[in-house]
């Protein structure tokens, strides 16, 4: 597709995504939803490289945080796949920035929690889009076998496409209900999987979730490629669940679960989520203290767990990650339900989050919150650690009046900013 970016993105209303087939990128408005970016790029046989699990989020929103899913071990987070941004800073300047141009602003805004500017346009890297996905889940009763295999799979990121998976995630199953209800298209209701029958350690099972992308032209080799990769893993032999589906259906899988929950009135409820980056060296301690301890065989939502390679994250951005080569996302994506069951109440789950954070502190687990929330500046300073001085300097450069994203309470209000003062 050809045309002038200025004529398409400079109009009074947000422009449609603009695809460069030759250079493999798409220019999108910051408020565009990722599902619409995907639909636009697929018209040219292309797609972004890195995703979030849920596509009904804005481009500017996920780039202000990181943007992660099972492709992050291979391509890095979404913020590692951006060529250029247009940003309105806190000083009211509209600036184009990239690695080469206004690079300080570029790196500040990526993962910057909206503190430095508003993303009005993003240029996103694209790759040829596969047609189909082989989606596989296998179960483990042993946590060390589970994490060993996950770490092995993400170590293959530099191998040719035929010798690695394209997506590596996992989740924790701490009660019978979740395995047969959440994300359970793999598990037949006529033959429900029983945790007790699989010898789960401490009543907990772990599910490795992996995918292999392919096209009709490579369909004849997909079986042997998957088989060769699975041979090296130590999952429970009888627990392989497989399905094949179109690429777009895989990427949009969570939306289908959303529609089911909405139909039951279970979507628009409080979500006391807790997302943590846990260093590899402490993930076994976390398993023992949280999955097998604090959660007490009860949860009210999925618990994701999967490792990422730190060298796929650009240290110049505003995101902070644990200081180890490999760290895990642990995402407790719970929903507070008004069912009369105390363990599903908002107060109970919020307190459980506090207990988990307290456990990490007392156990010396130097985790970092992803999608962080802290009530005081002191806690934010601790969160950013060695990056705090850089984060502060960038704030003073691009938003000296501290008028952006004041509700996060990262910065004390400026005396010159009525907007900031009124929100504190």
UniProtKB/TrEMBL annotation:
GO molecular function ontology, one term from the record: FAD binding
One BP term from GO: cytokinin metabolic process
SUPFAM superfamilies assigned to the protein according to its UniProt record, in alphabetical order: FAD-binding/transporter-associated domain-like (SSF56176), FAD-linked oxidases, C-terminal domain (SSF55103)
Domain FAD-binding PCMH-type: 1-129
Coiled coil: none
InterPro entries in the cross-refs: Cytok_DH_C_sf (IPR016170), Cytokinin_DH_FAD/cytokin-bd (IPR015345), FAD-bd_PCMH (IPR016166), FAD-bd_PCMH-like_sf (IPR036318), FAD-bd_PCMH_sub1 (IPR016167), FAD-bd_PCMH_sub2 (IPR016169), FAD-linked_Oxase-like_C (IPR016164), FAD-linked_Oxidoreductases_BP (IPR050432)
PANTHER family named among the record's database cross-references: CYTOKININ DEHYDROGENASE 5, GULONOLACTONE OXIDASE
Similarity remark: Belongs to the oxygen-dependent FAD-linked oxidoreductase family.
Record protein name field: cytokinin dehydrogenase
Species, as recorded: Nyssa sinensis
